[in-house]
Specification:
The protein is mainly β and 228 residues long. The protein has one domain (39-227): Jelly Rolls. Helices cover 11% and strands 44% of the residues. The protein has one helix and 14 strands. It has one helix at residues 10-35; strands spanning 41-44, 69-73, 82-86, 95-99, 109-119, 125-134, 137-144, 149-155, 160-167, 176-183, 186-191, 194-199, 208-214, 218-227. Strands 1, 2, 3, 5, 10, 11, 12 and 14 form an eight-stranded antiparallel β-sheet that branches. The N and C termini lie far apart (64 Å).
Length: 228
Amino acid sequence: MSSKKPPFSKKKRLVIFAIITMVGISYAFYNSQVNSGFKHTVTWNFDSYQNGTIPQGFAALSTDQIPSWVIISDTSAPSPPNVLEKLPINDTNDYHLQLIPNSPNVDTENVTMSFKIVSGENAKSAGMILRFIDMKHYFVLMADSGQNRLSLCKNTPDFLLCIYEKTVTITPGEWHTLKALVSSQGIAAYLDGQVILRANDHNYLQGQVGLWTKKDTNALFDDLKIEY
């Protein structure tokens, strides 16, 4: 007498489990977005600073030894007249970090900003830092116009690991928007209003926010907003 086969094979059970998990993650992000109850907002549009100056507190929170984050005027800015420019400095740093003064150290937040990648010989990548703990422990949501990809990367003491990536269109010389919805469930990343990545990652559960560029990338930033 032959034995009956189980109603679901191991492969089918794994597929069903994966589907249920993705639905659960999507619901968690949605639930976090709807019920987050953000009570505080910090906004940087850089319009209160004079052209050619460095915003107060920025130099002390930069990884660059010489000032390379300055205010300039840009008529194409999402909120003219001023933006923050990352100058294309050729140095030995692979990455350039600029923390935001008074950035909250929280586990749940909604971070949005506008950016424009202008140029770069060795790289054309810019983005936002999330869950910054220290120089060796943070996430970066990276937009790469050279490779046309959006990546969520985790910086570790040894490597920058870009585990979550999607192919997107990032046009140099044009303004784009980045948004990161951060919660205890993970990080959801948006480009130009469209959700691109969902990462169910529980590393570095809280931290500060900043700006980021790679190598000699010249980029502009505007309208950084942190809701928490």
